[in-house]
UniProtKB/TrEMBL annotation:
Keywords: ATP-binding, Cell membrane, Ion transport, Magnesium, Membrane, Nucleotide-binding, Phosphoprotein, Translocase, Transmembrane, Transmembrane helix, Transport. Residues 3-77 form the Cation-transporting P-type ATPase N-terminal domain. The chain crosses the membrane at residues 52-72, 78-97, 245-263, 269-297, 690-712, 718-739, 767-786, 798-817, 829-849, 861-882. Gene3D superfamilies: Calcium-transporting ATPase, cytoplasmic domain N, Calcium-transporting ATPase, cytoplasmic transduction domain A, Calcium-transporting ATPase, transmembrane domain, HAD superfamily/HAD-like. It comes from Cerasibacillus terrae. InterPro entries: ATPase_P-typ_cation-transptr_C (IPR006068), ATPase_P-typ_cation-transptr_N (IPR004014), ATPase_P-typ_cyto_dom_N (IPR023299), ATPase_P-typ_P_site (IPR018303), ATPase_P-typ_TM_dom_sf (IPR023298), ATPase_P-typ_transduc_dom_A_sf (IPR008250), ATPase_P-type_domA (IPR059000), Cation_transp_ATPase_P-type (IPR050510). It is found in: Cell membrane. GO terms for molecular function: ATP binding; ATP hydrolysis activity; P-type calcium transporter activity. This is Cation-translocating P-type ATPase. It is a multi-pass membrane protein.
Length: 885
């Protein structure tokens, strides 16, 4: 279809068979998706399942095992060869399943974190994931949005798009809607086009999708890319370092055991196989896979708790967070703005009704007002016109599309009987969009009588110097010093009630008057002030208290008036008596070092711009804090990126902010941040739990063999038994530990230091001490039986094998607590119970099922044997459970 920028809107409609006021039908959408595919960029080709399965056998120790299998077969030891082969295959299947599960989890995350597109379908605007966009879709774009596909722009309200992702130019491009005659233009010169992946930095617009997926400009660039590198989290790096240490230890021990065994006269082949088995025992091959699964399942739990993790490294960092810098509106509050009071004609008017309920009335000193009350209708009408929000109704309930404050003004207008039909009587000639630095929005309107006027709404302190006149019940009067003082008092009184205040003014314009922005917003006539309240979320107060107990300080950052912010902070019990509140203008006068000096005492930053957020983050980081920062606007992105944990809003957040963040709140709720931190701490603790379990079990396996060698005794375990324990029976309980619920005090501990090592907080001692005792009791079990019955080595080895497995299965419950096994209910983790029972069943099968007895060199055990085994295997856990060390 060629050069879309050369075609006018009618031609685009005809070629794509779409009406700009209706959009596509569902039938058209289905047909086009079948024809053109989904609107996604093809990334690196996924490995086939066969290659993924074969990759499980690339590990160095697994290759040694396979070599040992080959040697065993060549020496005629077919039972050993088959047994090792089956165990290796079983381990490969478990690893394959784990990787598949992790991959599916990450795919699920990508879909959840996909940008949202505002699409017109069958006359109704709908929010859909961007991958559902098809050619011919009519889409709406606003400031902060990422464009979901290549579009031909058909409506532009001061629309500017930053296209550096394509062109390298960071200066935004002002867009137009007229066709361009020139031929052969590059993307930067196609000023009536919007391209996938670029960002809207100003204004709004509507466009028709002309290319999707790999056919977009971004898709053509993506097709040139060879692939992407997998990011490694700090935790994965630590575990990789641990793996190197374990390999060194394993090889040293293997050489030692093999050397001692040969010196004592054991056959070289048996010692080689025993050495390989011990090396496998020392290196927990399942650890990387279990860590991946633990992270993956933890991330899925976070999704169920309304938090999407975009970067796995964030899971580890969450546990170290010491400061949460949070937006107020929508995060700590309901984000259902309601006009409760109006300052008009120098008097206070009360407004009834809450939320988005259209039922409500206006009262002056308990007297009900109607639209005849002086200036009331004008004020509400201007608030409705200078507005980007819209009201939608589903199942009888209204909701706001757009800014909640704008939505509150719409609802207030509806309560007086003003409907959206009034919009049709006015034409917007020009708009000066809201900007976080300007803190105001203006529009030039022309009514049905062709009379023009300017409407401006914004922060009262920003508009105050711009007022020259004001409306009274008796008409327009000069806005003198007395009236200015009255307005300031009114704003302060409203702020003391935690109301957000929005002032509104107007200015009549002649048709010949200049529309230059710098001139327009001067000499305004003050009309009134809206007092809007956004009540705190019910669950936030407790969440802030939980964070306080966890050693995490909560800081409120808001653009609202200082008194409003302080009132909400006090309501939430955020601030101590000596806590400081700082305004943006104070921040402007502070150097970075000045702010760093007092930052620890500040709990509320009010009247701040997004630029201030970066300064705040850096000041906290200078003090050594790990900072989580929330945001939703485009200008929040630098602060979010600079913070240790960037948190974006899933509902109100722009795509720019979401991309810069590590965590997305699906419900924009502060309590979800607390839940995510709790989950992040728990994931890290669970990883420590199964490292403790796996390594202490492996230490026990190594020591029982080493001690027996040094005592010139027969090997207590044959290689196939060691492999079975390490690769099969250890794996299931370890994985179940990754699903463990948090300990009761997980949010009562101080934040973990980012420099903390895996083995800190006594973990190294616990691994060695528990492992030592597991090895000792296993050896005692072997010695007791062997000394009484030296002729039946198989019997003694069965007791040793069973004691080792039982000691590990009892020890796994001890690993659930930092203190003692007796501190936690063993039945809390049903997955662990199932895993332990499964491992127990597998062990019983190897002991009592006759076809497996010659393979694993086991024999039947009596009741007396079991009493001995259970008594010995409980010793490590009971001893350290009582000592709580």
């Amino acid at each position: 279809m060629g050069k879309w920028y050369q075609k006018d809107v009618k031609q685009v409609e005809e070629l794509l068979q779409v009406k700009v006021n209706k959009g596509l039908s569902e039938r058209q959408v289905t047909e086009r998706r079948k024809r053109f595919g989904s609107n996604i960029l093809q990334t690196e080709k996924k490995q086939s399942k066969w290659l993924l399965f074969l990759r499980q056998f690339q590990d160095f120790m697994v290759l040694i095992l396979l070599a040992a299998t080959l040697i065993a077969g060549m020496l005629g030891e077919f039972i050993d060869a088959i047994a090792i082969m089956v165990i290796v295959l079983l381990n490969g299947c478990i690893g394959f399943y784990q990787e598949q599960k992790a991959e599916k989890s990450m795919d699920k995350l990508k879909n959840l974190a996909a940008p949202i597109a505002n699409i017109l379908r069958e006359g109704e605007w709908e929010k859909r994931p961007s991958q559902e966009v098809v050619i011919g879709d009519v889409i709406k774009i606003n400031r902060g949005d990422r464009i979901p596909a290549d579009i031909r722009i058909i409506k532009s309200d001061s629309l500017e798009i930053e296209e550096s992702a394509l062109t390298g130019e960071s200066i935004p491009v002002l867009k137009q809607i007229l066709p361009i005659v020139e031929d052969g233009l590059d993307a930067p010169d196609q000023v009536n086009m919007g391209f996938k992946g670029t960002m809207v930095t100003r204004g709004s617009g509507i466009g028709i999708v002309v290319h999707t997926g790999m056919e977009t400009m971004m898709g053509k660039i993506a097709s040139l890319m060879a692939g992407t590198k997998k990011l490694v989290t700090p935790l994965e790096r630590k575990l990789a370092e641990l793996g190197k240490i374990l390999i060194f230890v394993a090889l040293s021990l293997t050489i030692l055991v093999v050397g001692v065994g040969i010196y004592q006269g054991h056959p070289v082949y048996h010692m080689f196989l025993a050495g390989v088995s011990l090396a496998v025992a020392a290196i927990p091959e399942g650890l990387p896979a279990i860590v991946t699964v633990a992270l993956s399942l933890g991330v899925q739990r976070m999704i169920r708790r309304k938090a999407i993790v975009r970067q796995l490294s964030a899971v580890e960092t969450l546990g170290t967070t010491s400061i949460i810098c949070s937006d107020k509106t929508g995060t700590m509050t309901e984000n259902k703005m309601t006009v409760k009071e109006i300052y008009l004609n120098g008097r206070y008017i009360q407004v009834s009704g809450d939320g988005y309920d259209m039922n409500g009335n206006f009262y002056l000193e308990n007297k009900k007002l109607d639209e005849k009350h002086p200036n009331l209708k004008s004020m509400l009408l201007y608030g409705m016109l200078c507005n980007h929000a819209s009201l939608t109704v589903k199942k009888g309930k209204y909701s706001v599309e757009g800014d909640p404050t704008d939505g509150a003004l719409l609802v207030a207008a509806r309560k007086l009987g003003l409907s959206h039909n009034y919009d049709q009587k006015f034409q917007i000639i020009q708009e000066i969009p809201f900007d976080s630095n300007r803190k105001r929005m203006s529009i030039v309107i022309e009514d049905e009588n062709q009379m023009r006027f300017l409407i401006t709404k914004g922060a009262p302190d920003v508009l105050l110097p711009r007022f020259s006149n004001h409306y009274t019940e008796n008409g327009r009067r000069p806005f003198d010093l007395l009236e200015k003082n009255k307005l300031e008092d009114a704003v302060n009184q409203m702020a003391d009630k935690a109301y957000r205040t929005i002032a509104i003014g107007m200015k009549p314009l002649s048709r010949t008057e200049s529309l230059e922005t710098t001139i327009l917003e001067k000499d305004l006539t003050f009309i009134g002030v809206y007092g809007i309240i956004d009540p705190p979320r019910k669950e936030v107060k407790q969440a802030i208290q939980d964070c306080k107990e966890a050693g995490i300080k909560t800081v409120m950052i808001t653009g609202d008036h200082v008194k409003t912010a302080a009132a909400i902070a006090n309501d939430l019990n955020m601030m101590p008596e000596d806590g400081l509140v700082i305004e943006g203008r104070e921040l402007n006068g502070m150097s970075s070092s000045d702010l760093t000096d007092i930052i620890e005492d500040v709990y509320v930053f009010a009247r701040v711009t997004p630029e201030h957020k970066l300064k705040i983050v850096e000041a906290f980081q200078e003090k050594g804090h790990i900072v989580a920062m929330t945001g939703d606007g485009v200008n929040d992105a630098p602060a979010i990126k600079a913070s240790d944990i960037g948190i974006s809003m899933g509902i109100t957040g722009t795509d720019v902010t979401k991309e810069a963040s590590s965590l997305i709140l699906m419900d924009d709720n502060f309590a979800t941040i607390k839940n995510a931190i709790q989950e992040g701490r728990n994931i890290y603790e669970n990883i420590r739990k199964f490292i403790r379990y796996l390594l202490s079990s492996n230490v026990g396996e190594i020591l029982v063999m080493l001690f027996a060698m040094l005592m010139a005794m027969p090997l207590p375990l044959v290689p196939v038994q060691i492999l079975w324990v390490n690769l099969v029976t250890d794996g299931l309980p370890a994985m179940a530990l990754g699903l463990d619920q948090p300990e009761e005090d997980v949010m009562k501990r101080p934040p973990r230091s980012p420099r903390e090592r895996i083995f800190s907080r006594g973990l190294g001692f616990k691994i060695i001490s528990r492992g030592f005792l597991i090895g000792v009791v296993t050896l005692i079990g072997f010695m007791v039986v062997y000394q009484n019955n030296e002729s039946n080595l198989e019997y003694a080895r069965t007791v040793a094998f069973t004691t080792l497995v039982m000691a590990q299965l009892i020890h796994v419950f001890d690993c659930r607590s930092e203190n003692s096994i007796f501190d936690r209910n063993p039945f809390e983790n049903i997955y662990l119970i199932i895993a332990v029972l499964s491992s127990l069943l597998l062990m019983l099968i190897t002991i009592y099922w006759e076809p497996l007895q010659p393979i694993f060199q086991t024999t039947y055990l009596s009741l007396y044997d079991w009493l001995l085994i259970i008594g010995l295997s409980a010793i490590p856990t009971v001893v350290f459970g009582l000592s709580k060390k």
